[in-house]
Amino acid sequence: MRHFDLVIVGTGSGNSLLDPRFADWDIAIVERGTFGGTCLNVGCIPTKMYVHAADLAATPANAGRLGVDLTLDAVRWPEIRDRVFGRIDPIAAGGEQYRREHPDNAHVSVLTGTARFTGERRMAVDGAVDGADTSTEFTADRIVLAAGSRPIVPAIPGLADVPFHTSDTVMRLPSVPRRLAIVGGGFIAAEFAHVFSAFGAEVTVIARSDGLLRREDRDISLQFTKLAAQRWDVRLGRDVERVDRLAQDGDAAQDGVRLRLDDGSTVEADVLLVATGRTPNSDLLDPAAGGVALSPEGYVVVDAQQRTSADGVWALGDISSPWQLKHVANHESRVVRHNLLHPDEPIESDHRFVPHAVFTSPQVASVGLTEDEAIDRGLRYVTSTQAYAGIAYGWAMEDTTGFAKLIADPDTGLLIGAHIIGPQAATVIQPLIQAMSFGLDARSMARGQYWIHPAMPEVVENALLSLPL
Ligand SMILES: Cc1cc2nc3c(=O)[nH]c(=O)nc-3n(C[C@H](O)[C@H](O)[C@H](O)COP(=O)(O)OP(=O)(O)OC[C@H]3O[C@@H](n4cnc5c(N)ncnc54)[C@H](O)[C@@H]3O)c2cc1C
Ligand SMILES: NC(=O)c1ccc[n+]([C@@H]2O[C@H](COP(=O)([O-])OP(=O)(O)OC[C@H]3O[C@@H](n4cnc5c(N)ncnc54)[C@H](O)[C@@H]3O)[C@@H](O)[C@H]2O)c1
């Protein structure tokens, strides 16, 4: 049986773990799907390429208020789609070819198929060669689980019998649907609702809870839900009881769906997008056979050094991290790389201030605790809210809906949470992430540096100055 120094399962952040310092190691990297993983192929990167085009397509509708009359002439979806994947697909193929064929990787074997444990640091890879099932078994000194997550498909009656999409497939549609129904009210729903509505689709969002982006601070979720309802048909507090096929034009390929909701109403759509969360791929790995413990939600349990319960087995990214964010997977990959190379001087992941952004319209970005989390933890806190409308660049943009909300500890002056909804929120929040990460208190942050006038970060400066500290 073949033995490796290191086996990596998954080629998303797992693939970026390797560097020239591993040149003397005999390594295998296993992939069951498209080389490069979720972020590159079906996640962050293509979605944001669509979002940028959608932001442009949405501009004419908002420009008239500023006295600039623009019209949107056309959205050439096939061209947008082919530009996005014309750039991404070759990167995935090139990444795989580099690992398989480049002399730099003479010490790396790329195995295609699904890896699963058959014992302690022992795995089998089930694949197919020329249509025949194959299985290769090997042992390894060290194994890194970087097998990611996949979309959850809820058990809605009828769903299995109708055509539906997840984020894995919806970006490759042949055309923009006239009517798009989205089940779910989280990140993916908010981003695709923006993209498809900006491109001309009538969008219906069906959410079980009473607001969209419910995990955001309540003021942000409320504001986003209010704005979303002005743009899309938003059905809140509704469960989908059943989905049926909606025959259209006698052509099965054109069939749509009819969703029956629990209030008796129906939603008809040409395309259905299911965006109800993602589940870690741990079930594919037979973790018990390898002595790898899972949390009740199915995440591989890791300690601060990213070690699992099995000796010599590490995990990183979506398979072990409930944040399910690429920058977290990348951070953890760097930690695992260090710990593999320097077992005597291990380092720990830093999950103190994990930020995120939702690239919808308006953008939403957040770091640290929400106000409700601060209350649940019994913390003493103060807050401030600064509208974009109150800063000069907000006047320039005629923004009337965006704001930054800060939460701080009144005793130390340190920030404990920052939440922004509004133009470029994902960028504007970065100095707050920095301040929290490096322990800079709000007053020093506000007055210890210049803030370029009249730029958008003045929304942060003013929010800092308004904290009652
Ligand atoms: C639509 C969408 C948009 C997103 N946008 C953002 C964003 O803007 N910003 C952000 O930070 N995050 C975003 N994310 C999340 C981000 O993509 C993930 O957090 C990140 O890609 C996880 O990386 P990973 O390396 O853990 O897993 P992946 O990149 O998923 O890699 C895991 C790989 O393992 C393979 N695999 C699984 N099981 C096995 C097995 N048993 N054997 C062999 N191979 C296996 C899979 O095929 C996959 O290629 C988005 C996700 C989606 C779906
Ligand atoms: N910009 C980004 O960073 C970005 C973008 C997209 C995705 N992601 C990552 O991918 C993950 C998955 O995204 P997502 O939007 O699918 O998940 P999510 O957890 O953000 O939202 C899931 C939504 O589905 C609803 N839901 C769950 N089960 C349901 C059911 N059975 N029926 C109806 N509704 C149900 C939830 O109430 C919630 O509104 C995110 O949590 C995030 O970590 C990140």
UniProtKB/TrEMBL annotation:
This is Mycothione reductase. Belongs to the class-I pyridine nucleotide-disulfide oxidoreductase family. Pfam families: Pyr_redox_2, Pyr_redox_dim. Gene3D superfamilies: 3.30.390.30, FAD/NAD(P)-binding domain. One of its GO terms (molecular function) is mycothione reductase [NAD(P)H] activity. Residues 354-463 form the Pyridine nucleotide-disulphide oxidoreductase dimerisation domain. Its EC number is 1.8.1.15. It is an enzyme of class 1 (oxidoreductase). Residues 4-330 form the FAD/NAD(P)-binding domain. It comes from Actinokineospora guangxiensis. InterPro entries: FAD/NAD-bd_sf (IPR036188), FAD/NAD-binding_dom (IPR023753), FAD/NAD-linked_Rdtase_dimer_sf (IPR016156), Mycothione_reductase (IPR017817), Pyr_nuc-diS_OxRdtase (IPR001100), Pyr_nucl-diS_OxRdtase_dimer (IPR004099), Pyr_OxRdtase_I_AS (IPR012999). Its cofactor is FAD. It comes from the Bacteria. PANTHER family: GLUTATHIONE REDUCTASE (NADPH), MERCURIC REDUCTASE. Keywords: Disulfide bond, FAD, Flavoprotein, NADP, Oxidoreductase, Redox-active center.
